[in-house]
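## tool: complex_structure
## caller: assistant
## args:
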Amino acid sequence: MILRPYGIVLDGRLEVGVEAIFEGKEVREIRPHTGIPSPFVLSPAFVNHHSHLEYRGLMGAIPAREYWPWIREITRMKRTQEEEIVARDARQAAIENRACGVGAIAEHSDRPVAAEALVAAGLTGIVFQEVITFFETQGPQEKLAAIESRAESQRAHGLSVHLTPHAPYTVDEDTLRTLAAKGDPLSIHAAETPLEDAFFREGRGPIGDLHRELGLPMRTAGVGVVEYLAGLGFLRPGVQFVHACAIDDGDIETIAQGGVAVAHCPRSNRTLGCPIAPVRRMIEAQVPVGLGLDSAASSGPIDIFAEMREAVESSHRLHEPLTPEAVWRMATAPLPWSFPTTGWIAIHVADAHHTLDLIERGRPDRVEQLRLIEA
Ligand SMILES: [Zn+2]
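## result:
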């Protein structure tokens, strides 16, 4: 089957004047046009490296524009939601991911509604069932058993589902060590703000205050959060750190040597006042970095083009600019765990000459998933 767009995005770079010969879902050959092209661009489908489908209904609902009050507020609001509503929100979010050209998602799931939503929307990916032991009256063993049964119910939809710690400070140390030692795929929010470093280095800041208030043991390790996680066994392949905003060059070296991947979520980071993640330095250190849409509650509308625009713009604000091609590669990079290929999309933007034109003018309603290619 020949597809004759006016251009194809290859390794992040828009090449115009070429067409593709497909065999099933795979491209067999790219060659110069042999006929009149159609007004669209072909690209590998996008990959959403970090997502919380179930918070779709909370888009615009949390006024806080700072991480700590925001996380406290979403934790409170979640408790008021009925599971049926959450399941509906997750289905809507999955459909919106698919509509903007996403083919695969690394999904963080708390309530057990994501796998069904992903499959119903025709998406593939991996589900991380989040473990939080903070705020719990149950002991870690009972809590883990309850979460494992949620994970099991999601496995019924045919996706791989793994228990993962939500964040270093919301999970007790024994449970963190146990989960890291299993050797399974893991995805953990890490270094989203400097508050984690302040807590693990010296027990300071709002995380320390909350531990004191709840009577939880302090975990003053005298090192920052990346070194703390290293000490618990998290610096290994198969682990993804989500956000990695508040890190220095030493942390980047540690992450690179550990073979850890990073999910970059620039719109959420901007909303919550997090430091801009040093993505260019991570890429230069050979850390695999993928783009994540995080949740609509912090990122806003589910739109990979808006996320790519913010990835470009925030890198300029940091004075460590990323090329549009590098950003497109992050948005189409495979997940760091093996899973099937995700197919191709058509983007109906006319007269684009460079990848930046597609990023600037791309919108969800200009994307079409190419299902025909199965033939
Ligand atoms: Zn998240």
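## assistant note: Residues 50, 52, 108, 189, 242, 294 surround zinc ion (CB under 6 Å). Residues 46-332 form a domain with the TIM Barrel fold (CATH 3.20.20.140). Handing back to user.
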